[in-house]
Amino acid sequence: MRKLHFIEGNDVELLQNGAQFFPALISAINQAQHEVYLESYIFANDETAQSVQAALVQAAARGVQVRVVIDWIGSDRSVAIALTNRFIEQGVICRCFNPWFKRGLARTHRKICVVDRQIAIVGGLNIIDDCIADDGSGIALPFPRWDFAVTVTGPLVAHVHLEVESQWRKLGKLGLRTRLALMKHLRADAKVAGKQITAAALVVRDNLRNRATIQRAYLQALGMARSRAILVTPYFAPGRKFRRALVSAATRGVDVVLLLGVGQFALQDAVSQSFYPKLLAAGVRIVEYGKTQLHAKVGVIDEDWATVGSSNFDGLSLFVNHEANIVIRDKTFAASLAHELEMGIADGTEIFAEDVHKKAWYKRAWYGTAYLIYRGLMRIVTFGHYG
């Protein structure tokens, strides 16, 4: 497997939930002097989103070049169109990702902001009030949605900027020759970055040059894990390689803990539970988080490997959508994130093998059926790459 290209000398700060994320995001936008790139899967129309929108508009009014990318599906088609038009009227250039599925099924699920090429914010939080369910139901959550992001300053920001800029340019009108030149430029930049000593890396997934990069990052880390691995995701339905890596780590003595979101989508929960018997038998610990909506896509492996980003452990994130994670090699950061994850584990409910065996036969049959349905759909969508 190809090694990640890490860059040293970065300052990475953990942000938890909207209470920390939105003030950091708005502060960065308010300090912008030259340019702002913002990419989000969901850009809602609630009070929180309107505060971000106001900051972007104010930045544009003082001469900052503001470019926004929102997903046509994630932000809801009608909302996305209305927001795009409103932004343009107010001096913010906004583009929708893949309207009417003109470029296939992929969505941009990335959550990235880069300001003045000096600060980047990457993580799992969309532009939406984190006390309201993000599935369109509008249901008030009992506690703020549990999620994380990071702010990054240092040389890695240049690489993040290159990614969002290239995404922006690809959404415009580019000829084939220009697109090929852009891809070559991105590959060249990554090679230069890779000459430096490891500290932090941007890991993206797309359907061209980085089809399996995020999965490979996890597989490499799990393959080298020595003592523990805490992995968190709201949607758990990885392919066979990922599941084998979890089992392999657990069987050689690594304390593997999966903290999973439950209760949002019945089919997704059923697919996840179809994997429980084999994972539990191998020694993988499974904890279901039900305190509020879990939206975090994070992990800590051993004492010095951590990741925060947008990629779930499911077929769509690992094989279809555009995603972005930051991988950090730093003991202090990993310890800080691990502390938060251990608190999340304490708030969850651990599932044991006997719990699975006590399930009614028809429920267990439904879990298996749900997986077969999901696998069939994913194989069609991913042209057979999902296993």
Automatic annotation (TrEMBL):
<feature type="active site">
    <location>
        <position position="111"/>
    </location>
</feature>
<feature type="active site">
    <location>
        <position position="302"/>
    </location>
</feature>
<keyword id="KW-0472">Membrane</keyword>
<dbReference type="InterPro" id="IPR025202">
    <property type="entry name" value="PLD-like_dom"/>
</dbReference>
<comment type="similarity">
    <text>Belongs to the phospholipase D family. Cardiolipin synthase subfamily. ClsB sub-subfamily.</text>
</comment>
<dbReference type="InterPro" id="IPR030872">
    <property type="entry name" value="Cardiolipin_synth_ClsB"/>
</dbReference>
<keyword id="KW-0594">Phospholipid biosynthesis</keyword>
<dbReference type="Pfam" id="PF13091">
    <property type="entry name" value="PLDc_2"/>
</dbReference>
<keyword id="KW-0443">Lipid metabolism</keyword>
<dbReference type="GO" id="GO:0032049">
    <property type="term" value="P:cardiolipin biosynthetic process"/>
</dbReference>
<keyword id="KW-0444">Lipid biosynthesis</keyword>
<feature type="active site">
    <location>
        <position position="295"/>
    </location>
</feature>
<comment type="function">
    <text>Catalyzes the phosphatidyl group transfer from one phosphatidylglycerol molecule to another to form cardiolipin (CL) (diphosphatidylglycerol) and glycerol.</text>
</comment>
<dbReference type="InterPro" id="IPR001736">
    <property type="entry name" value="PLipase_D/transphosphatidylase"/>
</dbReference>
<keyword id="KW-1003">Cell membrane</keyword>
<protein>
    <recommendedName>
        <fullName>Cardiolipin synthase B</fullName>
        <ecNumber>2.7.8.-</ecNumber>
    </recommendedName>
</protein>
<feature type="domain" description="PLD phosphodiesterase">
    <location>
        <begin position="290"/>
        <end position="317"/>
    </location>
</feature>
<feature type="domain" description="PLD phosphodiesterase">
    <location>
        <begin position="104"/>
        <end position="131"/>
    </location>
</feature>
<feature type="active site">
    <location>
        <position position="109"/>
    </location>
</feature>
<feature type="active site">
    <location>
        <position position="116"/>
    </location>
</feature>
<keyword id="KW-1208">Phospholipid metabolism</keyword>
<dbReference type="GO" id="GO:0005886">
    <property type="term" value="C:plasma membrane"/>
</dbReference>
<dbReference type="GO" id="GO:0008808">
    <property type="term" value="F:cardiolipin synthase activity"/>
</dbReference>
<feature type="active site">
    <location>
        <position position="297"/>
    </location>
</feature>
<keyword id="KW-0808">Transferase</keyword>
